[in-house]
Structure formats: structure tokens, C-alpha cells
## 1
Amino acid sequence: MASILKDLVRQYDEAKPHADPRTKNWLLVENSPYPVWILTVLYTLFVIVGPRFMKNRSPLDLKWFLVVYNLGLVALSLYMFVEIILSVLNAGYDLTCASYNQESWKKPEELRVANVLWWYFFSKAIELMDTVLMILRKKNEQVTFLHVFHHASMLNIWWWTMMFIPGGMSWFGACMNCLVHVVMYAYYGLSAIPSLKDQLWWKRYITRFQLLQFCVTFTHTVNSIREGCDFPRWGQNLLSGYMVIMLILFGNFYIHAYIKRRSNKLKNSKSKGIANGSPATKDAPVANGLCHPPEGADIRTKAE
């Protein structure tokens, strides 16, 4: 671990002269990765220590806080989605190949793009609270590797983005992720209201929406490489590579939470039907045409 951190510091020192002078002193960017690294370490420690602290304690009743928290993130995500679109149109971006170079630092329209992307970066710090709330409510089965890895990695990736490339092609993945988060946090906010929980039928489609987001963002990024877009190649490689990782992890979740579970329900239904002396019907294991995820299945993760 020490050698990894040492290598990261070396890479940062080499890249520092190329940092965007407009954003390098903004909150949490602060011309140094240390604030974000400290936050990541504290987050990881809470993931490890939190469940032990709560083990012999009753789960906290945070129902109404969850409503306010999640719907607040809906409002923030909707604002960022709209503002990203307006700012890139104002900056005259080519939507398939938005350039970013040192000349971009001189354009006032680019500052508006950087500002909304900072809010997106800051929202990654706010969203660490997702995990804290799960642990305080003793929903430890939701704190999966996918969940923790995604939250921690997004915060750190977006520090590098805000430090070095807060504009150009960086807008697309953030915009897509904000749209997904509007839908996702709306579900979680409304599901915290007891009278609405059983009426929300669209949980499984959120995971499909996330997978679609990764596919679209990957395709958009690879196409920008093909077109020779004037954007740092390491940024394009980082985003396309991260989308592949997210597709693998989220795809694995979807297979286990929906496809395999549906297959198991079909097998169990047939077995019960034969045991009772009558064959099971084809639709027996799926209520109302929907296959619901296992209790505690975690979809509260975003690429973003």
C-alpha cells in the first residue's frame, strides 16, 4: 500500500504543472489529493468499524431523514443534469467530440462548465453518506464490494478530473450519471415512505438504466478516440476502462439478482407443482410479470 501511494504521489508531482489553474484551489481539489485521500480512508474505516459498532445496538430509525436526503439528491442531480447541458451548449461544444486544452482555460464560457462539474465532483463526497446510512440502519448486506468500490473510486477519479480536465469530454459521463441518479434517488426517497413502498414497481429497471448508461458512455468515449478528439488520451482511456469495469460489476449483479434468481424460482415452482401432484404453470414464479430482486439487493451505486 505504501508503494502504491508513493507511486501516486510521484505521478501527481509530474502532472502538477499541467493542472488547470482555474480549479486547482477549489474546495476539495485544493491543489493536492490529500483531502480526498483522507476522506476515502475515513470512509473505508467506517465501512470496517461501523458494523462492529452497531452490532449490539438497535438500528436507527432514519425514515424521514432518508426521504429528505434522497429527494435532496434528486433535486441536486436534476439541477446538475440541466446545467451541464446548458453550459456545454453555451460553450459551443461539439457533442460527440468536445475539445479540452490550455486554450480552454481562457474562455469564460468554459468556467461555467467547470463550475457545474465541480458540483458533480462534490456530490460524490455527499453520496458517501449512502453507505453511512446503510450501516446505521444495520443494512449491512447492502454494503457490497460493488457499492464501496464504486463510491470510493468515483470520488478519487473525479478529483483527477477536476484538477486536470474540468471540461471538454468530461461533461458526457457526468451528464448521463446525473440523469440515472434522478431516477435512482427518486426511487429510494419514495420507498422510504411506508404508504408508497409497495407501489414502486420499477426497481429492476434502474439497474438496466445503469447498464445502458455505461454502454452509451463507453461508446461515446471510444468514438471520440476514433475521431481524434483534442482531449487528453489518458482521460479517454480512464473513462472507457472504468465503464468496462462497471459493466462487468453491474452485469454480474444483474445476473445474480434477476436472471439466476428467476431461474431458481422457476425450478422451485416446478418442483413444488410436481410434489403437489400438478405441474407448475409457466408464469407461477413471476408475480405480475416482474421478477423482484433479493431482499437488500444493492442498486444504490452510480458511474459514474
## 2
Amino acid sequence: MDDSPEAHKPHTSSTTSSAQPITDDIFESLDRFSALVRNTNAPEGQIQTFCEQMVATIPTVDMAGVALIPERGTTPQTVKCTDARVLEIELDQHRVDEGPGVESARTGQRMRVNSGDVTSKWPDFARCAESVGVSSYLSVPLSIDEVQVGVLSLYSFVDHGFAEIDGVLLQVFIAAVEGAVWKSRRGEEWRVEIAGLRAAMKSRGHIEQAKGMLMVVHAITEDQAFEMLAAQSQRQNIRVTTVAAEIIRALSGQTGF
């Protein structure tokens, strides 16, 4: 509720127009914030860079990829990788619904296996992946605020099972990828929230303008003007904001508006 002195002044057509600069200032602030969100150093590009850095930094890693879960309970989708063969491997996993990445996404556990383990655990996937030549797999769940959001997968053509990977170094990369995913998802949440706020403010502005017009044309109170809008909305079975927009269009051509 607005308890400012301005809120208790009688509404007229001029009152509506005087509020416009305030609305413009808020829209301008929202536009500036939207631009700030859009320029967050491209989180998706950061994920790609982190994958490439893992291959360059960790000697036992030949390929890397990140698969994200769009919504809880849905199939992970590979969003970034260092080699087209990663896409092939992960698509095969999702097609047969088994493999280290699928298992890590399903259980939230780290999966570190060599080619022999893959053959015994997931024979269908092993047959699919045989032509690629990967011998060691490491899939690690990615989480934000204890909610699993994806899987980081590392691949090697050597049958060592990633036993010698420095756990601290790997954890640094996991934290970096999780941070980039968090930034990307929060950025999208902010964009949606800003769009919703802009729409709500625009709708409110239309309603206030239509009420002001009705008050002048019919010499009625603010409450009576809103009742007219609500009644028209019920009769036509459309939103009050739509009724307000129609009234604005209808009355804008009359003298004084």
C-alpha cells in the first residue's frame, strides 16, 4: 500500500500524466540492470573454457564435457565439450539409458571406471562406445545449493581409471563450472523477473490511465471508475488490463485526452 501524501490526492487526468516521469525512471533503471545481467562475461563461454583448461592442465584427461539438467528429473543435455566424440558418447548413454554420466546424474555419486568396468556394468553402452576408443571415464555430479544441476565428465584413451588425478585440482574445476552454471541460471531468473516487473508496471499504468479518463468523462470517483473496468472485464471475460487498453484507445481521440 502507498501511504505517501501523493497517494491520497484526488485522481484526475493530469494526475496520471504527472506520474509518468517516475515510471520512466524505474523503466530506465530496469533497462540498466538488464544490460548488466546480459554482460556477465558469457557463463556458457566460461564453461567451455573450463573444459578446455581441464584437458590442458590434467595430463590424464583427453576430452571433457558438461551436461546440464534442464529441470529436476529430466535427461541431462550436453552443453559444452572439447571434442565432438564427447557428444557421440553422451548421446549413446542417454539413448540406452546407462553409462557413467547417466549413473552419476541418477545417483548424485562420482563414477570413476575403466573400460573393463564399463563392459560389466553397462554392456549396452560399452558396445556403443567401443568405436570411440575411450578407456577411462570419470563423471562427477554438479550441484548448486544441494540441488544437482548436471554432470562433469572426463574421458581418457588410456586404461588407468583416472586413479592419479589430483582430487584438489579436480575440485577447483568443479567449483568453477558450478559457479558458471549458477551465474547463468541466476541471470536467466533475473531476466524473467525483470520482464515480469516491467509487464506488471505497464499493466498498472494502463489501469490508472483508464481510470483517470473515466473519472473525467463520467464525473465519478476513483472507486467507481475501477468498478466500471471490473464490470466490463466480467462481461467480456477478458483481463482488466485489456479493458483498460481498449478504453484508452477509444477515449484518446476525444478532446482533452
